[in-house]
Amino acid sequence: MKEDSAEDRSKLIKAMQEIAKELRTDSVPRHEFRRRTNVSERKIQILFGSYNALVEAAGLQPRLFPTSDSPTYSDQELIAEVIRVLRLPNAKLTRVFFDQHGKLSTSVCERRFGGWINTIRAARDSLNPVADAELITRIDEYVPTNSTTRIQRNENAEEDEPEQAGSAASPELEHAFIEGTTANVYGDFINFRGLQHEPVNEQGVVFLFGMVCREIGYVVEIIRSGFPDCEAKRRIRGKSGHWQRVRIEFEFESRNFRIHGHDPDQCELIVCWVDNWPECPIEVLELRSAIRKLSSAVDNTALNKDEKA
Question: What span, in angstroms and rounded, lies between the C-alpha atoms of 31 and 24?
Fold first, then answer.
């Protein structure tokens, strides 16, 4: 048994090293490793304890996420890492590229400089005008001079701004926001049981999950204020009567998980209203889709009753 485990460990270490070599990076993101190998998170935890432990066993650099006891990086250190990644062959200026090749999480930089665009601007100001002239030109084309102008992306761009949730109204029917009345802003109408409007924040997500958790196979153990927000148990598919613990983080949008700097090693599931993070390294439950299925199931049941009557 131990020999089998040692062999499995060696295979994963070798796979990690080969992927790093192919990507020309010393820090392979979790989602990229799992996409290429189809190795389950559970197997990684059994063999290594955590994904970062596997990365270190392969002689690579683990990804760093901000925590209460994380080391504090100076502005110069963060900018130096951003510039290092921007100078890589065929480098792109997107968050996705930095996530794939950087030694730090994008959220570390975004929290320090106030967003990814401001991070790029800070890096530009530290570049050598002569040696980095080409890169400076690319940044100037990528970052708008007017902060209110939408960034122009080429046809090969890796990410776009997310569409707003909810149905779009005709411009003639839309009205200016009245300042000072933020408490009176609601989501679109969904009329789902006791909830008339869709969530507009994380608290709404928590409330809605509590309404439907049992129906979608979850039993909540605890809700807390610290990360992760919730511990629950859920039914295991194909194993009747068996449940498994799952750690849950609630977010309004799934990619807020990254913006908030959470460590995916400490969480198995993001529960959100809008899933807008295609590269998310852990499982995502989008409640917007889940309640559509529940509503559809209720409508079909009612229809069948009417037909029988």
Answer: 16
